[in-house]
Amino acid sequence: MDAYLLYGLAVVGLVLSLVKDKTKTTTALKKAWKAFEGILPQFLTVLVLVAVALAILDTATISRFLGTKAGIWGILGASIIGAITLIPGFVAFPAAAALLAQGAGATQIAAFVSSLMMVGVVTLPMEIKYFGQRVAILRNVLAFMFSIVAALFVGWMVSL
Amino acid sequence: MKKDLKRYSGVIVAIIAFIAFIVFLPVWRTKAIVSIVFQTKTMLLVIPPIFILLGLLDVWVPREKMIRYMGAGSGVKGGVLAFLLGSFAAGPLYGAFPFAAVLMKKGASFTNILIFIGAWSTTKIPMLLFEISALGPRFALSRLAIDIVGIIVIAFAIKAVLPKKEVARLYAQAETID
Asked: Mean pLDDT for chain A?
């Protein structure tokens, strides 16, 4: 669903650009290719890291972990799993909903969802390439801590 | 050729490690292969439009405009624009990084770049609608509310502790994207 939106925007943009200026459009496409080739090594490394992380931490394993461990350790564990994995939202949300229905804590689920989206351990090679080690690591550490705060807030709101 | 080999040395190591992983740990073999195929498909699907859009942005949006709307003097408006730009985006977080680099090259301020990345990571509109239907409005909307606060806090915190020299280095690096 995400992708359709992107393709729609890209196609509209390209057509408008072509109508206005053909040379500029060619330049844009050349730049797009160069930018892509520039990050390709990091992309491929991330691909392998993600595959391994998801093989070990598949949805069933994650579910078991989030479903049984409660309390602060459960929240911390959920954040760590979320930080390591890279699952698209359309896979993660239904899984999270099923867990909630089975009695998992809203706080744990919120911790998982938040750090899943904001923290990217496996995508660090790419982030470092553009933002340097300092910013990349700092951003991920702060986002990790924040995802716990966010989880506590969401858990509290849901419990009201 | 030699330069290319050096650039791809990390990939080669990763691929060798991956082959070793699926050879020596048969328990995870199928899952690893399934997930690498799935991730490759996702990336191949999402990457072309993102890079085409960033190419178009680079060519069509003049630097002066970007500085005016999202530069250092753009104030709250610039922050809101960065937030909206990130929220209306689609695709995984790794798509945001090259896009952010082009925004930097065009003169968007660093705080706004960080807000853009934060918004892209967690407050995307299509995902929000999906989250509401899966986890309920109370869950999704309270997460959205706290996330907006978090994005701003994180952006300003990073900006505050980061030496000016490092910011300048990152901008110089973004400048080399062509």
From this structure: 88
